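Open question from group meeting: does this chain pack into something compact, or does most of it stay loose? Before anyone orders reagents, we agreed to write out a predicted structure and look at it together. Recording both the input and the output here so the notebook holds the full record.
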Amino acid sequence: MWLQADFDEHVLWAYNERHLDYLEAYVAARIREQQLPADGGGLRLMTMLAALPTWLKAAKNRERILRRIGRMRATLRPSAPDDRSVEGKLRSSP
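Structure tokens returned:
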């Protein structure tokens, strides 16, 4: 897994940016509703979100988890080259 971050004694991870988006939307939601099957059977669908660990779903961890997700997201974006890079220092050296 490339997208990993420590969270207390746990590891927050995602497969890719789409998975990270999904987790972020779930964690950020103040009200989380589960969909019932259209057949009216009353059985709840078992989804990825239903299987998430309690620490990830806990409201008390929401802000900290969202910050970690933001840091993970930042690793996906290529950074702009600047003069602080080693290559820039080599080129500007006399």
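Observations to bring back to the group:
Residues 41-45, 83-94 have pLDDT under 50 and may be disordered.
The longest strand covers residues 3-7.
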